[in-house]
Amino acid sequence: MAAAQDEGSGPSGLLERTLGVLEILALNAHGLQLFEIADKLHIPRSATHRVLTSLVEHGYVRQERYHGAYLLTAKIASLAFTFLSESGITDLAQPILDRLARDTGELIRLALVDDQRLIWVAKSQGAQFGLRYDPDMGREGRLSCSSSGHAWLSTMKEEDALALVARQGYGSREEYGPRAPQTPQALVKQLRAARKRGYAFVVQAFTPWMNAMAAIIRSPVTGEVTGTVSIAGPHVRLTEPRMHELAPLLLTAAKELSLASAASPTLSGRAGGDQRDGLVPLI
C-alpha cells in the first residue's frame, strides 16, 4: 500500500515524467539504474522504462552495456550551448567574465532570471592554483543563501521576495552553509543591507567553506533585472574585507553586462514577474 501511495505522489503526465527523468539524470552524471529513477520520481517502473526507451531512441539518454545505468548524452548539453550561442550570451558576456576572473583571481558566474528562478549559465575561473570553487553550470540557484539570490531578491518588495523564497524553500544549514539564513527576519536583514550597499554578499552561507558576492544585471531596454554576476571563492581567501575591496570591479562588470545585454534577446528580455517596485541602482 505504501508503494502505491508513493507512486501516486509522483508526476502523472508523460511530459512531466520525461522532464523529471532528465532532471534526475542531470543531477547524477554517473547514471542511475531504472529502479533508482523510478523510486526517486515515485512513478511505476513500467512507466519509467517507457520514458527511458523513448529518450534513448531520440538520442538524449544512453544505457551502459548489459542492462547498466542510464546516463544523459551530450545532446542535452549541445542544445544548451546552441541556445546560449544563438542568444548572444556567450559572445557578449564571456569576455567580461574572463576579465573579471583575471582581475579578482576567483570564480565568476553569470546567472539569468528564468521566470521565478535564477539559473547559472556561464562562468570563468580566475583561480589557477590552490583552493578553487568550480561548480557545474545549469543549476538553479538557492535564493535564500546565495549571493546571486540575495542580489536579485533585494530589488523586490520584501513581501514578494519572501514569497518567492517560501515557494523554493530555505536552504538548510546541514545541506548548505552554517550561516545560511533560516528565518524571514534573518533574510530580510541581509536583503536590506544588500539594497543599501548596492551589492550582496554571503559568508559561509551557500557552502561551509565558500564566500561570494553578487550584483544585478538590468536590461537597458526595460530596466528590469535579467540576471546577476557573482564572485565566489574560499572563505580563507575571499574574506569580507576583500569582498568590499572587489566591489568596484564587480559593479563595473555588472554595468557592462547590462549595456551589452541590449544586443542579446535573452539578456534584454523581460524577467519573470514585474519587479519595477523596489529597484536599486547598480552603482
Automatic annotation (TrEMBL):
Transmembrane intervals: none
Protein name: IclR family transcriptional regulator
Keyword Secreted in annotation: no
Swiss-Prot/TrEMBL keywords: DNA-binding, Transcription, Transcription regulation
Alphabetical list of Gene3D superfamilies matching this protein: 3.30.450.40, Winged helix-like DNA-binding domain superfamily/Winged helix DNA-binding domain (1.10.10.10)
GO biological process: negative regulation of DNA-templated transcription
The keyword rRNA-binding is annotated on this UniProt entry: no
